[in-house]
Amino acid sequence: MSNVRVAGTGLTPFGNTPERTSRDLFAEATVAAFEDSGVPREDVEALFYGNFMGELSEHQGHQGPLMAEAAGVQAPATRYEAACASSGTAVRDAVVRIRNGEADVVLVGGAERMTNLGTAGATEALAIAADDLWEVRAGMTFPGAYALMAQAYFEEFGGEHEDLAHIAVKNHENALTNEKAQYQSAIDVEDVLEAPQVSSPLGLYDSCPISDGAAALVLTSDEYAEEHDLDAPVAITGTGQGGDRLALHDRDHLARSPAAREAGEEAYADAGVSAADVDLAEVHDCFTIAEVLALEALDIEQVGEGISAARDGRTTADGETPINLSGGLKAKGHPVGATGASQIAEVTKLLAGDHPNSEHVPDATTGVAHNAGGTVASATVHVLEEVGR
């Protein structure tokens, strides 16, 4: 079975650009990805594209062919929608397509235009990733849903808001050197604790921003990379996907993420590694409590111990396992459809030594990208390994 090389990555800056369309953003990301890869556009055999709210933010459906046109490729194109895990699922299917020999070159990525909706409009649009009948109509939003998960965690395992504050501080610190990040500004624990409350116990700095942005990856087979002498030292060696009941009230536990655990176990087994082999990870920290749940689902932290990981320095840039060296969703930004592919791009650069924060992980060979949809009813996990130039 062929490994899948990450031949090229491309990201737009994440941030507040309401005047730019998704097709404009995705075109910019793909230009960067093709330049980085050295792969000609005519070699692309398929486009897998993630987007969540295009119908609501741009009145635009059927985006696959539109994005192929924006990218300048002539290939069958498919849009993936799995809420915030949209491009994570697109990457997974691209990996499978290459591995089974149906393609040697796939362009994969995603984009989202959100800020043109305003805060209230974007919050309402995001809410459709929850159960409309039982959650949305009752008034639940995602800040409220993750606040319920945080309350359940504190009740079962202990912890307090100050523990979560250290996660926000860490991820803002990591984003300082990331020129693509939405927030390149440091904060301290007091800033987090004194910020306006959004939904108890979560405050403003516990929450990721509303973002516009795009990400693109050029993936190739091992054979294509070798035949074309590509500089592609990082491969996706493991992929996994998990699922859970959509509505929170239908789940056995609010303080655990079985979908992420299922995806992680599948990805680790696929790559032939364990959590002990993971040198760094980009995890889906849409809210600070989400990082805790992700680390425990991936076995990077034991259940009940993830809450103290940032506070005790285990997941800081110079800790045992640095988490979200890009700044994460919390500080880098979260243009929903682009996030999963952007995490793969960040891990690739970190392992290749091409990231501003690679200096913190000079000997890293194995990284993980964890992408979650909604309240983690959908999850994908990918293992990436440095395989040499």
Can you describe this structure in just a few lines?
This protein is of the alpha/beta class. The chain is built from 13 helices and eleven strands. It has a single domain (4-117, 209-386), classed as Peroxisomal Thiolase, Chain A, domain 1 (3-Layer(aba) Sandwich), CATH 3.40.47.
What would the keywords be for this entry?
389 residues; nine-stranded mixed β-sheet; 13 helices; 36% helix; Peroxisomal Thiolase, Chain A, domain 1; globular; two-stranded antiparallel ribbon; alpha/beta
In sequence order, what are the helices and strands, one letter per element? Answer: EHEHHEHEHHHHEEEHEHEHHHEE
Q: Give the strand order of the largest sheet, numbering strands 1, 2, ... along the chain.
A: 3-2-4-7-1-8-11-10-9
How many separate domains make up the residues?
Answer: 1
Average pLDDT across residues? 97
Radius of gyration, taken over Cα atoms and rounded to an integer in Å: 19 Å
Which strand-content bin applies to the residues?
Answer: 15-25%
Main beta sheet, described? 9 strands, mixed
What CATH calls the topology is Peroxisomal Thiolase, Chain A, domain 1
- What structural class do you assign from the helix and strand content? alpha/beta
**How many H/I helices?**
13
Low-confidence parts: none
Write down the CATH class: Alpha Beta
Please give the share of residues in helix: 25-40%
Q: How do the strands and helices of this protein lay out in sequence?
A:
Layout (H helix, E strand, L loop, with lengths): L3 E8 L10 H16 L8 E5 L3 H5 L4 H9 L5 E4 L5 H14 L5 E8 L5 H10 L14 H16 L3 H15 L13 H6 L2 E3 L2 E2 L9 E9 H6 L6 E10 L14 H14 L8 E3 L5 H10 L30 H5 L6 H14 L13 E8 L4 E9 L3
Helix pairs in contact: 1-3, 7-11
